[in-house]
Amino acid sequence: MGFADAARAQRLISEDLALDAEGADADLLAALAAAADPDLALITLTRMPRDAELAEAMRADAGLRNRLTAVLGASTALGDYLVRHPADWRVLSGPDALRGGTAAEARADLLAAVGAQPDDPEPVADPAAAPGGSPATALPAAYRRRLLQLAARDLTGAVTVDETAAELADLAAAALEAALAIARSEQPAAAAPARLAVIAMGKCGGRELNYASDVDVIFVAATGDDADPETETAALRTATRLAAGLIRVCSQSTQEGALFPVDPNLRPEGRDGPLVRTLASHRVY
């Protein structure tokens, strides 16, 4: 059936999972064998807590069975996520499992995960409203929950490559905004007001993102048309703290892993230039 270590596979199937290989679970074994890496899929399935509801659902629902085994056999990261959050197999079940979320839905979902209000003009994360009291940990968990559903649809041919790339870019944009909401929550109370635009570049800006891409961005600050030099300097300082905070939130390691690297080096002068510029500064450059 394609297992590289047949003896281990037999042990896991018969002892750890107690599957009926020639009866009710024959279709599950066939789905595991069809995964990109049958051994990885089987091992990860044994790592998930025993769940009678999941076992019954995999026997009855071919769509769930194929989507789950495809993910488990293709992605160690998403398999680890399911081990930590075993109840989230439900996002791969039912009619909604085949429906791609909109960019607005992804944005609202990830902002809500960090305790921010999606309808606010400038959403701010709230640790008291985030699961576990940690927006920085809640964000990668919410991101991977949506990534799990997208990857399952992708791996089973429910979406095209172009649709997958566009949805990955929309999901990255939602994660960037949620990370910015966390950065806002960490600003000192006396910080000068500033507006900050995060411009997606490269594959993200072209909505051609892939699973392994970093996210290229340029930061642009607005300080007001009639801002005096002192006010502009203070606003740029605030905008720079926000931009640096966003990058840190996306790249820092948590118990849910990191989101993705954010690369701001397409900005004018690259690494040697300031992280954030005003629009006027970009025009001069």
Structure in words:
- This protein is α/β, with parallel strands linked by helices.
- It has helices spanning 6-16, 26-34, 38-47, 52-60, 62-72, 76-84, 103-113, 135-155, 161-185, 202-205, 229-251, 279-284; strands at 195-200, 215-222, 262-263, 276-278.
- Strands 1, 2, 3 and 4 form a four-stranded mixed sheet that branches.
- The radius of gyration is 22 Å and the shape is elongated.
- The mean pLDDT is 93.
Output the keywords:
285 residues; alpha/beta; 2 domains; four-stranded mixed beta sheet; 4 strands; elongated
Secondary structure layout plus pairing:
Blueprint lengths: L5 H11 L9 H9 L3 H10 L4 H9 L1 H11 L3 H9 L18 H11 L21 H21 L5 H25 L9 E6 L1 H4 L9 E8 L6 H23 L10 E2 L12 E3 H6 L1
Parallel strand pairs: 2-3, 2-4
Antiparallel strand pairs: 1-2
Strand content: 5-15%
What overall geometry do the principal axes of the alpha carbons give? elongated
| CATH superfamily grouping of the largest domain | Beta Polymerase, domain 2
Query: Structural class given helices, strands, pairing?
Result: alpha/beta
Q: In total, how many domains does the architecture comprise? A: 2
CATH class membership of the largest domain = Alpha Beta
Mean pLDDT: 93
Percent of residues in helices? 40-55%
Tell me the CATH topology of the largest domain: Beta Polymerase, domain 2
| Count of helix runs | 12
Order of helices and strands: HHHHHHHHHEHEHEEH
- Radius of gyration computed on alpha carbons: 22 Å
